[in-house]
Design goal:
The protein is an alpha/beta fold and 420 residues long. It folds into 3 domains: 166 residues, P-loop containing nucleotide triphosphate hydrolases (Rossmann fold); 73 residues, Helicase, Ruva Protein, domain 3; 128 residues, no CATH class. Helix content is 39%, strand content 7%. It is built from 15 helices and 5 strands. The protein has a 5-stranded parallel β-sheet with strand order 2-3-4-1-5, sandwiched between helices. Helix 6 links the parallel strand 3 and strand 4. Helix 4 packs parallel to helix 5 and helix 10 packs across helix 11. The radius of gyration is 34 Å and the shape is extended. The C terminus is likely disordered.
């Protein structure tokens, strides 16, 4: 739909595991080299694992393409929801080995003789099992037994197990320790880094006939990597829909705002691939803690409802020491500019110490309750108090007590154990 608009010959971001679009990162090159080495050296068992969408099947299709060029007989089992007889039937059919018998012993004997013929001809045979994390323990044990089809020096059948990280956990079971010990080589696929994501998008565009004209700006590529967490399949999904949306709007450049809209449509903002909630790219960083940061649940509505009562407290900008701090009673809610634990209600970072150049608190405030946390800086500064004016701590405590009484009357449903 958008190919002509962006000057492309094909859709660059199809989610099909097309080996032409295989992007060779350092980890992918290592994995491909590990697989080819294990097959050529007749190592028997090779394991390939990786997170969902990191390109395992695309890598396997590239391997199959190479094996076909080398004229190596292969069987590719992509459905792990099979029992043992079904698995053997599928494997023999994919190898092209006729077997009229339904007996398991006859099937294995036929397979062994066929593998010996391949070995005498200087050939090998490769069995690749995708989605192997879904194989039953019984079938995994049956696959292990196939490695006993061997000569004194070499394995006759090379087996590649491909699966998600759950496969590694499954192989740690005590009843599968024999299979785990026979895994001679292990390879992994990984998510893309930011630089790899940029190169990945550019490569797919080039293969699809891109003429070099800018389509994704740097901010959009940063957003794509952020929301996809570097998972190639999710990168394809986001890019495909970004191109569609940009084409509908008749725009030539995909912007970060378009990426954010697509990410929200696919629920990648609150529930990203990595499982960590992400904030929108355009959202500014959170502001410093203000007056409504209090120790205890009762204090938050107190400040929101009666903010005017605290205007007499001088404000301090972010990063500056607090001035004219008012100490709180031992059992009253403490107000501070420290971060507050929402469960325990205790500060998680210490308050900044007053600098030598800043005005000191009145003597009465310095002598009373040394452990009590002072009031935090307010977002709106009030007129400063004259240096000669005395501060009455008793009146301040009475004012806070009156506010607490009015709050209890207005919020009768508040828990009784909450006290100011």
């Amino acid at each position: 739909m958008y190919k002509e608009f962006f000057g492309l010959r094909a859709n660059p971001f199809n989610v099909n595991p097309d080996p032409r679009y295989l992007f060779l990162t350092r980890h992918t090159e290592e994995a491909l080299a590990c697989l080819t080495y294990g097959i050529q050296s007749r190592k028997g068992f090779v394991l390939l694992t990786g997170e969902v969408g990191t390109g395992k099947t695309t890598l396997i299709n590239k391997l199959l393409e190479w094996l076909r060029v080398q004229q190596v007989p292969t069987a590719f089992v992509f459905n792990s929801r099979l029992n043992v007889p079904q698995f053997l039937d599928y494997m023999m059919a994919d190898f092209g080995v006729p077997s009229d018998s339904r007996s398991k012993s006859q099937i294995l004997l036929r397979l062994y003789n066929w593998l010996l013929d391949r070995y005498r001809a200087g050939e090998t045979a490769v069995l690749i099992v995708d989605e192997a994390q879904g194989l039953s323990d019984e079938l995994l044990e049956e696959i292990r037994m196939m490695t006993n089809l061997e000569t004194f020096t070499e394995k006759l059948l090379q087996i590649v197990l491909v699966g998600q990280p759950e496969l590694e956990q499954k192989l740690k079971q005590p009843n599968l320790r024999q299979l785990r010990q026979r895994l001679t080589l292990r390879a992994k696929t990984y998510p893309l880094t930011l630089e790899e994501t940029r190169s990945y998008v550019a490569q797919r565009l080039r293969i699809a006939g891109w003429n070099g004209q800018a389509i994704f700006n740097p901010e959009s590529l940063l957003a794509i990597h952020r929301y996809s967490c570097g998972i190639p399949r999710v990168v394809n999904l986001i890019c495909e829909h970004c191109l569609v949306s940009t084409f509908v709007d008749q725009q030539r450049i995909v912007t970060a705002s378009v990426v954010e809209v697509v990410a929200r449509d696919f629920d990648l903002v609150e529930n990203p691939v990595s499982g960590i909630a992400l904030s929108p790219v355009s959202q500014p960083p959170s502001s410093p803690a203000s007056l409504d940061v209090l120790s205890g649940a009762l204090a938050r509505p107190l400040v929101r409802s009666h903010a005017a009562a605290f205007k007499a407290v001088p404000a301090a900008s972010s990063g500056e020491p607090l001035q004219n701090a008012v100490p709180a009673p031992e059992h009253s809610p403490r107000i501070s500019n420290a971060k507050i634990d929402p469960i325990a209600g205790s500060p998680t970072s210490p308050l900044p110490e007053p600098s030598a150049s800043s005005p000191q608190a009145p003597p009465s405030a310095q002598s009373a309750e040394p452990e009590a946390a002072p009031l935090a800086s307010a977002s709106h500064a009030a007129p400063e108090t004259a240096p000669s004016e005395k501060f009455d701590l008793v009146d301040a405590l009475k004012t806070l007590a009156n506010l607490a009484d009015r709050l209890r009357e207005s919020e009768q449903d508040a828990p009784k154990e909450r006290k100011l």
